[in-house]
Every structure is written in C-alpha cells, then in structure tokens.
Write a structure and sequence with these properties.
Length: 130
C-alpha cells in the first residue's frame, strides 16, 4: 500500500467529514531556458506522492473515507520531448490511487462541483504564484 494512501486515511480519521485542498509546487527557472531542479511541496508529496509540477489535489472525506481528486498536467508529446514524459491523468488513476483525475486547466471549473455540500474545507497555501 502506498505511503500517501495511509497518510490520507489517517487524515480522514481526524477530519471525518470535510475536504482538504492542497497545491503542488511549480517549476522555477533561473533564466529563459534553464530551470532549477524541481522539488515538490512537502505537504503535497505527503498526501499524494505526486512528483510533477503544476498540480492540485482535493481530498473529499465522507464518513472517514478519503477520495483523492487530482488536477495534473495533460500529456503533451511535444513538451515531453524537452521536459521528459508526463504522468498525466491516466497515471494519476493507475499509479497514485486517485479517485478521478482532471486536467490542471479544469481546476477552477470543477472545484465547486467537488465541494458541493461540504461545509468544512481546509486549504493549504504554501506558495504564491506571480
């Protein structure tokens, strides 16, 4: 069993009913074409183990059962030529135990649907994007 799955179950036992929204780190560049090595936000990694930049996670907890909804970068063969293979939505489902995975670009559109009827929401903001 994945470590993050155990971590989400422990979190769900504490929260019982509610939701947690966390954001992954983004890539940081020194100049136009040279980036710093990517390091995922610790809280995001703890609950998802997701290794790629530009991702969001919504953990919906009902009766101490967590469901992980991921918003991740789309597969893009042209960009993958330069930046390496992306895991994509399929990988989020198969390898990271997501209940459902969406495109990173659909975050604002889908967030309201995921949180419908939930009154207790915790949000982790660990960085600001310019």
């Amino acid at each position: 069993m994945k470590i993050s799955l155990n971590n989400r179950e422990r979190l769900a036992n504490e929260i019982v009913n509610g939701a947690v929204i966390i954001h992954g780190n983004n890539s940081v560049y020194r100049n136009n074409d040279v980036g710093y090595p990517f390091r995922q936000d610790s809280n995001f990694h703890y609950l998802t183990e997701w290794p790629e930049p530009d991702a969001h996670a919504v953990i919906v907890i009902k009766d101490s059962k967590p469901d992980l909804y991921m918003f991740v970068q789309d597969r893009n063969l042209e960009m993958e030529t330069w930046d390496g293979k992306r895991i994509g939505q399929e990988g989020a489902l198969e390898k990271y135990n997501a209940t459902k995975a969406y495109s990173f670009n659909d975050y604002q559109k889908e967030l309201g649907n995921l949180l419908e009827g939930i009154t207790d929401v915790s949000v982790s903001y660990t960085h600001l994007r310019a």
